[in-house]
Amino acid sequence: MMAKATKQVYLLTGRPGTGKTSLIKQAVAGMRGKAGGFYTEEIRSGGVREGFRLVTLDGQHTILAHVDIRSPYRVSKYGVDIASLDRVGVSALNQAAKECNLIVVDEIGKMELFSANFREAVWQIINSGKKVLGTIMFQANPWADAIKRQPQVNLVEITRANHHRVLEEILAWLEVDPSSN
Predict the structure, then answer these.
(1) Are 23 and 158 in contact (CB under 8 A)?
(2) Residues 70, 81: Cα–Cα separation, whole Å
(3) Which of 46, 60, 72, 105 is such that its CA lies 20 to 30 A from the CA of 85?
(4) For residue 150, how far is the Cα from the chain centroid?
(5) What sign results for the dihedral spanned by CA atoms 141, 69, 86, 47?
(6) Long-range contacts for 22-28 (Cβ within 8 Å, ≥24 apart)?
(7) Candidates 2.70.98.60, 3.40.50.300, 3.40.50.1970, 3.40.50.1370; correct CATH number of 7-40+82-174?
(8) For residue range 115-144, what is the model confidence (pLDDT) as tens digits?
(9) pLDDT given at position 104
(10) Residue 155: enclosing H or E segment and its boundaries?
(11) Residue 5 CB: number of other CB atoms within 10 A?
């Protein structure tokens, strides 16, 4: 068990709706040091999902994907705005790599992987030696699978049943000195 705790990168995976983003938000809220990066959230209208918003930990936001975006980059019915991802999301990752104790990247998924700048930023932060907390797509993908196999990555599948236990593990991992608890 201690071997997992010493890994610098903690990536959550799992099916949609298992609470991966909620887990990250809860963990970061309870953290002592400075965190940077971003998470994604759904954009809904009248109960119908219309897209996804990218929100940085310092309060910036942009639309990542939406049914009304016309783009050559598409996932399902959503057009993906690569320029906004690069401008807001990749900038937040690069800033966090310079200034923060923890880099949050939610998520490493189909939409985000369209961006070469995003892939490069993720590769750099995964290999930076800093703590990284993120989510990564559950489905097979050659690029994402290569990240999952990195020796510094602790990959944890989230289910509704293990949500609370994994949150406790992450909170312990984020402590400066876990032996002081």
Answers:
(1) yes
(2) 9
(3) 46
(4) 16
(5) negative
(6) 23/158, 23/163, 23/166, 23/167, 23/170, 24/104, 24/106, 24/133, 24/134, 24/135, 26/167, 27/133, 27/167, 27/170, 27/171, 27/174, 28/57, 28/102, 28/104, 28/133
(7) 3.40.50.300
(8) 999 999 999 999 999 999 999 999 999 999
(9) 97
(10) strand 153-157
(11) 13
Please state the domain extents for the chain.
Answer: 7-40+82-174
Whether 144 and 119 have beta carbons less than 8 Å apart is answered as no
In one-letter notation, the amino acid at residue 67 is V
Residue 83: helix, strand or coil by DSSP?
A: helix
CA–CA dist 94, 99 (Å, integer): 9
| pLDDT tens-digit map of 34-43 | 899 999 999 9
Place 2 in a pLDDT band, splitting at 50, 70 and 90.
Answer: very low
Q: How far is Cα 114 from Cα 52, in angstroms, rounded to an integer?
A: 15
Look at the alpha carbons of 45, 86, 122, 71 in this order and tell me if their dihedral is positive or negative: positive
CA distance 97 to 114: 21
Half-sphere exposure (CA, 13 Å, Cβ side) for 176?
4
Q: Retrieve residue 20's tokens.
A: 């991966």
Amino acid letter, 93: L
- What are the pLDDT digits (tens) for 144-165? 999 999 999 999 999 989 999 9
